[in-house]
Amino acid sequence: MKVEQSQFVQSLALAKEAVAPKSDAFSAELERQLMQTIKGQAPEKKEEKDPEVQAFKEQLTSMGAVAFFQHFNMEKIEKLLEEKRKELEAAFNVEALGEKERASALVKIEELLEQYAKELQERLNAKTELEDSKSPLASLLGA
Predict the structure, then answer these.
(1) How far apart are CA 28 and CA 51, in angstroms?
(2) What are the distances in angstroms from CA 61 to CA 52, 66, 70?
(3) Rounded distance between C-alpha atoms, residue 67 and residue 34, angstroms
(4) Whether this model's pTM surpasses 0.90
(5) How far apart are CA 137 and CA 132, in angstroms?
(6) Which stretches of the chain score pLDDT less than 70?
(7) Of 54, 84, 127, 134, which has the most beta carbons under 10 Å away?
(8) Residue 51: HSE in the Cβ half-sphere, 13 Å Cα cutoff
(9) CA dist., res. 129 & res. 109, Å (int)
(10) What is the pLDDT of residue 125?
(11) 119 CB burial (10 A radius; 0-12, 13-18, 19+)
(12) 93 Rama class: left (phi>0) / alpha (psi -120 to 50) / beta
């Protein structure tokens, strides 16, 4: 049996036409199913419900890491100073003093608090310097 080239080309064209719609439909269905699978497997983004965490994130992104760290340290120092103020006022018994004695006691308390604040700042700076000196980056840079 002898097959001519034109018949062969014609047969291939017919076969291609018969298969093409099926393969397009198949690829479209495959793509649809793949997209459904991907959407089903995609981890849903969980929203943080804790307002403190949200506030922390917002503050950190708005201020930057260094400024946030400095602000955080100042808040700690202010809290410690307030605790120390209450402690000193109780030790001096400010409520029971007369006006003049109370005024001089409050001046003395302010002086002590200023010294305490300087002490806290020095401790914080020393701690930061110590941590920086232990840093592998600092040792690499020769600092």
Answers:
(1) 45
(2) 14, 11, 14
(3) 46
(4) no
(5) 9
(6) 1-5, 8-9, 12, 16-23, 41-48, 135, 137-143
(7) 84
(8) 0
(9) 30
(10) 83
(11) exposed
(12) left
Res 88: pLDDT: 92
Q: Say what the pLDDT of residue 28 is.
A: 80
The pair of structure tokens assigned to 11 is 């047969």
**Tokens (6 digits) for 93:** 């018994």
Determine contact, residues 138/132, Cβ cutoff 8 Å.
Answer: yes
Whether the Cβ atoms of residue 80 and residue 124 lie closer than 8 Å to each other: no
CA distance 81 to 75: 10
> Residues 80, 48: contact at Cβ < 8 Å?
no
Q: How many CA atoms lie within 13 A of 47 on its CB side?
A: 2
With tokens 């006691």, the residue in question is 105
Interatomic CA distance for residues 45 and 108, integer angstroms: 55
